[in-house]
Inverse folding.
């Protein structure tokens, strides 16, 4: 358990001397979703996973903000004495990795952004009302959804707050991506998500295209024919390839 702020985070560390890969979960998911990616990459990498506040085996907190998640990542890296990680973030974890890299460009190898960290967010009063309505409907099912990694130990209102802030973060991430001084590799899904149709999600993903043209450090590694929620399973191989690409490029630079 790693202490941070008013809580403690459950962390696993495979050890080893290979490149360090730190996995950043989706909004309400725990670390278990990474098992196929980790198995595919194998023992040549040091794998570090952690459950965010109120998720998985970590303790709850009074602060579930995006900045709190950045502090969580800082605490885990410091506790495990990690320098120059590859950050692999799915959904909510993707902008977390990009923001951390923007603040620590000399301390990061790169980011693998899995169906996230694209400059599109559903914002404004109508969008917020839609999100709050969605989580309000999910409230009676939270106890079922938590073990599946689809809900955290938060109230429905807190779930909505996290989702609303995530949309705002993504909506404004374009300039940060355009100026990124580190490598970012995107692995994108092609299907829909909970509360969003395939067409809407493809509109979200298409927003990355203008940014790719402005920064050669950003590239799409793969598009996987699966939905947002299944990409860590169906896209495990493509995610592993993106990690190898970033880690290999860093090794070539050091040579």
């Amino acid at each position: 358990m790693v202490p941070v702020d008013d809580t403690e985070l459950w962390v696993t560390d495979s050890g080893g001397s290979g490149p360090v890969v730190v996995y950043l979960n989706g909004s309400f998911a725990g670390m278990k979703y990474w098992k196929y990616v980790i198995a595919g990459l194998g023992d040549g990498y040091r794998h570090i996973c952690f459950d965010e506040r109120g998720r998985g085996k970590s303790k709850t907190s009074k602060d579930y903000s995006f900045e709190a998640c950045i502090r969580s990542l800082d605490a885990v890296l410091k506790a495990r004495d990690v320098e120059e990680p590859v950050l692999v973030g799915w959904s909510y974890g993707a902008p977390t990795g990009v923001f951390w890299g923007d603040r620590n460009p000399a301390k990061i190898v790169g980011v693998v952004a899995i169906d996230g960290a694209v400059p599109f967010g559903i914002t404004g009063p109508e969008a917020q009302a839609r999100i709050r309505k969605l989580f309000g409907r999910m409230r009676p099912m939270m106890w079922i959804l938590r073990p599946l990694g689809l809900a955290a130990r938060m109230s429905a209102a807190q779930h909505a707050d996290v989702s609303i802030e995530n949309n705002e973060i993504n909506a404004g991430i374009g300039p940060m991506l355009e100026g990124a001084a580190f490598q970012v590799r995107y692995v994108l899904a092609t299907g829909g998500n909970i509360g969003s149709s395939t067409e809407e999600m493809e509109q979200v993903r298409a927003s990355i295209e203008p940014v790719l043209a402005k920064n050669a450090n950003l590239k799409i590694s793969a598009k996987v024919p699966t939905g947002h929620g299944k990409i860590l399973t169906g896209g495990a191989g493509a995610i592993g390839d993106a990690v190898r690409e970033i880690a290999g490029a860093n090794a070539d630079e050091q040579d």
Q: What stands out?
A: The CA atoms of residues 2 and 92 lie 21 Å apart. The beta strands are 2-4, 7-9, 11-13, 20-24, 46-50, 86-90, 110-114, 183-189, 218-224. The first strand starts at residue 2 and ends at 4.
